[in-house]
Design a protein that fits this description.
mainly alpha; 3 strands
Length: about 130
């Protein structure tokens, strides 16, 4: 009976060790995979591999959201802000003006209403 108990304890210990090793191995594989994925994404996105790639991405995302919020908080945009808001070049903006996008001139400066831009884009895409 004593042998049976000792054998049972040994088997349980072996099972625990095996499970622990499998868990450790799985975590190592996951971390290796994550590092390879980060490296691959870094190369695809044009970043050099950096352990802080996720932080860089979050910072860029926050910056983009902040810029968008700043633009949408204003009603009137200058030419560059309008191009940034729509996501086009100055040449593309000239084409939209030729198609009927309205603007207001203040001296030699053009100002575009966000309301008008949104209305125009909505009607052009429809």
């Amino acid at each position: 009976m004593k042998n049976t108990i000792e054998k049972s304890i040994e088997e349980k210990m072996e099972n625990l060790i095996t499970q622990s090793l499998e868990t450790i191995l799985q975590k190592n594989i996951e971390s290796i995979f994550d590092a390879k994925l980060d490296s691959f994404l870094g190369k695809k996105l044009g970043f050099s591999f950096d352990k802080n790639l996720e932080q860089i991405f979050e910072k860029k995302l926050d910056e983009t959201i902040r810029q968008h919020n700043e633009l949408t908080a204003k009603e009137w945009l200058n030419v560059q802000e309008t191009c940034d808001y729509i996501g086009i070049s100055y040449k593309g903006l000239r084409k939209l003006i030729d198609q009927g996008l309205k603007f207001t001139s203040i001296g030699r400066s053009k100002r575009f209403s966000i309301t008008e831009i949104n209305h125009f884009l909505k009607n052009v895409q429809a």
